[in-house]
Design goal:
With 185 residues, the protein is mostly helical. The protein contains five helices and four strands, in the order αββββαααα. It has one domain. The strands form two sheets. Strands 1-4 form a two-stranded antiparallel ribbon.
């Protein structure tokens, strides 16, 4: 439930500031699409990196909907690859892949918003799909996710870098909200 409240709040705040209720409803309508898109992108990034770095791997399972895995653990989505064992460095790169994708998507969307009307259809889609969804994915996995926990166990630097990136993302999103408020005046 906390996750859903966070997602709705993060989507409603920039939208309502940018263009009122109509845009807020438009943005909320993108939420299911953004959630599914981010889930597919997240798991695909892991698989693509695993197949790129570790020769001979094959994807044996790829799920992008909630459920229990073979070990009985609940996950929002998961993948399984079989093949050669990854080295610790390769494993780190595989775990970081979706978060690198989030950073690229967020940055590209931030740049695109400087060229698009924030409250319009394209602006709403860019905010939800390109900024809010990656920021929520990055943040929730940072707080709750096994990938980040494993990385922080290897080196505290991953915890510091992840926290700084989340802070920068929140500040950039807040900047876009303030900018949209100034445009409305």
């Amino acid at each position: 439930m906390r996750v859903m409240i966070l997602v709705v709040a993060m989507m409603f705040l920039p939208t309502s500031a940018q263009a009122g209720r109509k845009a807020a409803l438009r943005m909320l309508s993108f939420a299911p699409v953004a959630f599914f898109h981010e889930t597919v992108a997240h798991e695909s990034a892991h698989v693509l990196m695993a197949r790129t770095l570790v020769r001979g791997t094959s994807v044996t399972e790829f799920r992008v909907w909630p459920g229990r895995n073979n070990a009985g653990q609940f996950h929002m989505a998961w993948y399984r690859v079989d093949g050669p064992v990854a080295t610790p460095a390769q494993e780190t790169m595989i775990k970081l892949a979706p978060y690198a994708l989030d950073i690229v998507a967020f940055t590209a969307s931030d740049i695109a918003l400087s060229r698009v009307k924030p409250g319009g259809w394209w602006g709403s889609m860019i905010v939800v799909m390109g900024m809010v969804a990656p920021l929520v994915n990055f943040s929730l996995n940072y707080v709750n996710g096994g990938d980040w926990r494993d990385l922080r166990d290897r080196s505290p630097a991953f915890g510091v870098v992840g926290g700084v990136l989340i802070g920068v993302g929140v500040l950039r999103l807040a900047y876009r909200v303030v900018q949209a408020l100034k445009e409305r005046e």
